[in-house]
Amino acid sequence: MNEISQFSYGISVLEISYVIASVLFVIGLKMLSHPLSARRGNSLAAIGMGMAIIATILFHQKDGKPIGNIGFILAAIGIGTVIGWVIAKKVKMTAMPQLVSFFNGMGGAAAALISIMEFPHVRPELIAEHGMANGHVLAILIGLMIGTVSWAGSMIAFGKLDGWIGDMRIKAMKYVNLTIMAILIGFIVFIMTRQVQASAELMPYVYLMFAIAVVYGVLFVMPIGGADMPVVISLLNSFTGVAAAMGGFLYNNQAMLTGGILVGSAGTILTILMCKAMNRSLLNVIVGVFGGGGQAAGGEEGTVKEVSVTDAAVLLSYSKKVVIVPGYGLAVAQAQHLCHDLDKLLAEKGVEVKYAIHPVAGRMPGHMNVLLAEADVPYEQLVESDEINPDLPNTDVLVVIGANDVVNPAAEDDPSSPIYGMPIIMARDARNIIVMKRGMGKGYAAIENMLFFNPKTRMLFGDAKSTLQNLVNEVKSL
After folding, report:
1. What is the 3-state secondary structure (H, E, C) of 220-266?
2. Using an 8 Å Cβ cutoff, are 367 and 402 in contact?
3. Sign of CA dihedral 423, 426, 428, 429
4. Assigned superfamily of 309-477
5. Rounded distance, CA 6 to CA 58, Å?
6. How many alpha carbons fall within 13 Å on the CB side of residue 413?
7. For residue 153, how far is the Cα from the chain centroid?
8. DSSP string, 325-341
9. Who's near 292: CB < 8 A, 6+ residues apart?
10. pLDDT at 272 over 70
């Protein structure tokens, strides 16, 4: 009786811990919606995860026996913690998209390994009663498929973002990917309709399904152009969440289920928003046929006009409204702090300064928000592109720092452009435009930007960090 009471007590504590962890996940996610509370929300979610892990180690039991291999589990947690801490501390802001892809891929890999390890251990009595067509097997196979695709796709995304993997563009890729997806679904149906005594008999098919899912994950991401990577990162993130949720179903683990559902649903919603921001369809994302380079019709036209640092400083200092459009180039130069110094100096002179944030500026969702938050730019100064566009005709100076595709008029003017139809920041509507760039190189979508030849545009060439430092000095001297 005493052993039964202890067992019931352990189960109760475990379930309560999972519920508390789930609540902390929800609260933490909610707090991530604002920079002022994001750090605290992240900490609350981490506490919830830690609580779930500790409770599992202490109270989880299988067939009345406590969890084993505690030493290996603690060693793995310790090693993973150290590696994750060191990587997160040393990563540069420019490499943040790669880090997100890599960590997301590790989550997908973990979900896939769980499925591979659990499939041979499907309970014989469950198979005897329902056959292989049961929810337990379905959760395992879906987790395997989605987790593997997330892992393989995230690794390819990591390589593409880091520059050592290029694009692979084949017109028939759409049909190839759809065929592979149909094969994967066919494998799930095939495995679940087999009549076997033990699930281990079907392991060769599981391994084959894993291999096909790896191929699909690679081919799914390979054709996607760099300018469209924010959508891919968001989608792969949602995949990992769904795979983790399958693990929650598998183990009847409320914390794992809640965390997976939150990540999966948030990633899916963000993916839809990213697709809308880039005028892409979700189906095209899934089959991997969108994005890429191309050449805007017309090529180079007009004359490029330059502006000196002194003239730019004067123009900014005597303006009433200034809008700054940050892009990946600002992150590369690590000039966000100097940019904030400039906007504070202009504010002291009575200039109203806002930042126009495009949803897909940079190489991951929210890249510019994270970049500027690191420099302590007040959240109130960050304005989404669709909100700030109506006010741009009343803006005295618009400053583009390292951004390209998100201000490219080809999205509205050139039907042959690969970014045609993508909502952009209407930079050309401003009264004066200053574009800060190293040179006349094309953006991540590899197309010409006709904004550079606009009569109202002045080019301020040079490294963003040194140029902003010179601008700060000039504004101070006025």
Report:
1. HHCCCCHHHHHHHHHHHHHHHHHHHHHHHHHHCCHHHHHHHHHHHHH
2. no
3. positive
4. TPP-binding domain (3.40.50.1220)
5. 12
6. 14
7. 13
8. EE-HHHHHHT-HHHHHH
9. 167, 169, 223, 224, 225, 228, 418, 445
10. yes
Cα-based distances in Å from 416 to 64, 169, 265, 297, 299 = 66, 17, 34, 6, 12
Q: What is the pLDDT of residues 110-136, one digit of tens each?
A: 999 999 999 999 988 888 888 898 889
Alpha carbon distance 35, 369 (integer Å): 9
Those residues whose C-beta lies under 8 Å from the C-beta of residue 10, and which sit 6 or more positions away, are 58, 59, 61
Q: Where in the sequence numbering do the catalytic residues fall?
A: 405
Is 261 exposed, middle or buried, given 0-12, 13-18 or 19+ CB atoms closer than 10 A? middle
Beta-bridge partner residues of 461: 437
**Token digits of residue 129:** 């009663």
In the structure encoding, which two tokens stand for residue 413, read together?
Answer: 């003017």
| Token pair of 315 as six digits | 């123009």
Distance between CA 206 and CA 265 in Å, rounded? Answer: 27
Tokens 């036209």 belong to 301
The residues near 251 (Cβ < 8 Å, ≥ 6 apart) are none
What is the pairing mode between strands 397-401 and 65-66?
Answer: unpaired
Cα atoms found within 13 Å of the Cα of residue 65, Cβ hemisphere only = 4
The distance of Cα 191 from the centroid of its chain, to the nearest Å, equals 33
Euclidean distance between CA atoms 405 and 7, whole angstroms: 60
pTM score: 0.80
pLDDT in tens, 333-390: 889 999 999 999 999 999 999 999 998 887 777 788 888 988 889 989 999 998 999 9
Task: Pull the structure tokens for residue 347.
Answer: 């504010």
Q: Which helix (H) or strand (E) holds 397?
A: strand 397-401
Q: For tokens 């949602």, what's the residue?
A: 238
Spatial contact of 195 and 206, defined as CB atoms under 8 Å apart: no
Contact 435/457 with Cβ under 8 angstroms?
Answer: yes
* Contacts of 30 by beta carbon, 8 Å cutoff, 6+ apart: 41
State the Cα–Cα distance between residues 163 and 334, nearest whole angstrom.
19
Q: How confident is the model at residue 97 (pLDDT cuts 50, 70, 90)?
A: confident
Which of the two residues, 163 and 358, has the higher pLDDT score? Answer: 358
Contact 187, 142 (CB under 8 A): no
Give CA separation, 427 vs 369, 399, 404, 471, in Å: 19, 9, 11, 21
Candidates 418, 311, 420, 326; CA nearest to 374 is: 326
CA distances from 368 to 194, 324, 363, 365, 371 (A): 51, 12, 9, 8, 5
Whether 450 contacts 298, CB under 8 Å: yes
pLDDT tens-digit profile of 292-320?
A: 444 444 444 568 899 999 999 999 999 99
